[in-house]
Amino acid sequence: MATRVLQLSVYLIGVCLFSICILVFVNATVSFVITDLLHQKENVGDAAGTLGFADELLALVACPFWGLLSDRIGFRLVIVMGYAIIAASLFVLVQVTNVYPQLLLARLFFSLGASCASTMVTAILPSMVSKSRSTAGQPQSTDSSAQTLVRTSQDPRHAHLSGFVGLFTGIGALLALGAFLPIPNRLQSFGVTPEKALADTYYIVAVTAVVVAFACYCGFRATSTNSSERSHDSASTQSVTQRTTKTLSHIPTVLKLGVTQPSLGLGFLASFVARSSSIGITLFIPLYVNASLCGNPASGVEDVKAHCREAYLMAAQLSGVSQVFALVFAPVFGYFPLRHRHFNIPLTVATLSGATGYILFARMHTSKMTPSSLAIMALLGVSQIGTIVHSLSLVSSFVTEEKRTANDAGTNDAVADAVDDHEETTQLLDSDNNHSAFETHEHLKGTIAGVYSFAGSLAILILTKLGGVLFDRLGAEAPFYLLCLFNLILLVAVVTCGVLELYNKTPGRK
User: What DSSP string runs through 107-142?
Assistant: First the structure.
């Protein structure tokens, strides 16, 4: 029991909370690095967008890589490596003297570590759900045409734990916005220059990353048992080339599952929207406030530094309100998916909130907090946490869904080989190794997490670059129309999947 509490605590605090906290901090302060540290006043939106674009371009490759690596060596060493890279990159980020190529390369270094941490949030989640392997009392359904036996546990702990993940990611965002983001302004109040205040803040966050890496190394120690023995046994029967080829083959397998399995495909699409919402709130809202309060370079405002101190606070307030509502609604979204399995009402509500909130924010022209701005940020927070929680729940449930293909010895042997190679994919907190005759997708959980993060990175890739260009050319509100479009696409997908599922379950249909 003590081990279980320790593992869950390290996962929720060390992985979920601080990975998002650091990511939010860097995204929220990147525009200030450009303006305050590098003193660039022109094309700030395009520069920030280009940095984000390059960040996510690397993440497109890095996320699947980290997922595959965790399938091979376990997630403990992977998450420690991720935080070590993050800590080093935060130090490097404030040593640069120009945007290109120094700040760009430093941001790519940070992306390598951040993509690792975000991938592990999803990769570790299925292992944290301890469920019984016993088949007693479990309903089974037989599809004679496909000769497939499927046992879907629909364990409520998937949704509940996903709700807690959303809760702690919300706390992480609040920690970044309420504790880390105001630090430069507080240091300036003691007479510290804006440049040094920003650099010192990055050093503080870097030290935090080192502490978290150490906590993960110690806290997940119990999960890495027999790792070397497992590697030795596997190496005795398979060459490195064979093992690498088998591991790489997981990627096309997961991509095919994403197309053929609606729940997994919807989880990937929800990840796309969830990550774009996160970057919209943490990157483009500060940019919007920066443009409003610091003034356009063409306006001739000379006291930019003084005005930007207000921008720090305003950006923190707006983003903070959204994260407070995300924090409150995280357990709500963790509960309601259990009541609406077929027609996904919670995800529908989340996408409607997002589409409405971003349209209203794009039309909001104010430099101070008002009741209307509070309501708009509430909608954005509800949308963000709804898509995060439910995308994680969909993916986690799919990973641990139990399934067996009857009369297919070759398939079962292949599954057995995969499970042997990935013994760590058994339940982290469940010592029962009885897999019965049923197969899960746990041996693919790292790869599924990598593709899940890949989908989110693709969204951010589009949003940061295109949104940054639109920000400079069409206005500060342009990126929020793009975010509205993303939410509408997910809404159409959710409704379509729900209607098709209900249609297929109509009495009289096979």
Answer: HHHHHHHHHHHHHHHHHHGGGG-------TT---EE
Distances in Å between the Cα of 379 and the Cα atoms of 360, 375, 392, 444 are 10, 6, 20, 35
154 three-state secondary structure: coil
Does this model's pTM top 0.90?
A: no
Walk along the chain (510 residues) in steps of 10 and give the mean pLDDT of each run: 84 93 89 87 80 84 89 89 97 93 95 93 81 37 37 56 84 85 90 91 96 94 46 47 64 84 87 86 79 54 51 76 85 68 78 92 74 90 89 82 49 43 44 48 81 85 81 84 92 86 66
The one-letter amino acid at 91: F
Q: Are 198 and 185 in contact (CB under 8 A)?
A: no
Return the half-sphere exposure (C-beta side, CA atoms, 13 A cut-off) of residue 195. 7
| Dist. CA 232–CA 223, nearest whole Å | 18
Amino acid at 383: S
- Two structure tokens written together for 288: 């919007």
DSSP letter string, 411-457: HHHHHHHHHHHTGGGS-TT------TT-B-SGGGHHHHHHHHHHHHH
Q: How far apart are the first and last CA of the chain?
A: 45
Say whether 404 sits in a helix, a strand or coil. Answer: strand
The CA distance from 213 to 505, in Å, is: 48
Question: CA 79 → CA 26, 40, 66, 68, 85, distances in Å?
Answer: 19, 35, 9, 13, 10
